[in-house]
Amino acid sequence: MSERRLISSGSPFEKEAGYSRAVVLGDFCFVAGTTGYDYSTMTMPDAIEDQVRNAVNTVAKSLDEGGFSLSDVVRVNYIVTHNEHVGPAFKVLGTFFGDIRPAATMIVAELVRPDMKFEIEATAYRPSR
Fold this sequence. Notes:
The protein is α+β, with helices and mostly antiparallel strands. The chain has a single domain, classed as CATH 3.30.1330.40. It has helices at about 10-15, 50-65, 85-95, and strands at about 5, 20-25, 30-35, 75-80, 105-110, 120-125. The chain has a six-stranded mixed sheet with strand order 1-2-3-6-4-5, with helices on one face. A hairpin with a 2-residue loop joins strand 2 (about 20-25) and strand 3. The chain is globular. The chain starts with a strand and ends with a strand. This is Enamine deaminase RidA, house cleaning of reactive enamine intermediates, YjgF/YER057c/UK114 family.
C-alpha cells in the first residue's frame, strides 16, 4: 500500500479549512483548488492574468515538492468568476499547458471571496520507475 504524503503551501487557509495543498498517493498527486493568492506578499492581485499565473505557479511548486512536475498533469479543472475572464485566462494557461494538454474543464462560478477570479485544481500522474 502506498504511503499518503501531504504537501503544504504554507497558506493559513489550509489549517483553518482542514485541507492540504496537495496529496501524493502512489503514482498520483492531487492538488487542491488553488486561487491566485500571492503568498510572498499575502495579497490577491486584481488582474485575472496575474491570478492565473500565481495559481499555476503555486500548483507547480506543490507538484515539485511531491516529486512531480506540470508535465505530469493529466487533469485540470478551472473556475473563473465571469465569462469575460475565460479568454485572458486561456492565454496564460496556454503558456503553461499548451504542450502538455491535460484533460480540462472550465467552469464559470462564484468563488469564496469576491477578490478571487480564478481557481485551478489539478491531478498529476507519474508512473513508478
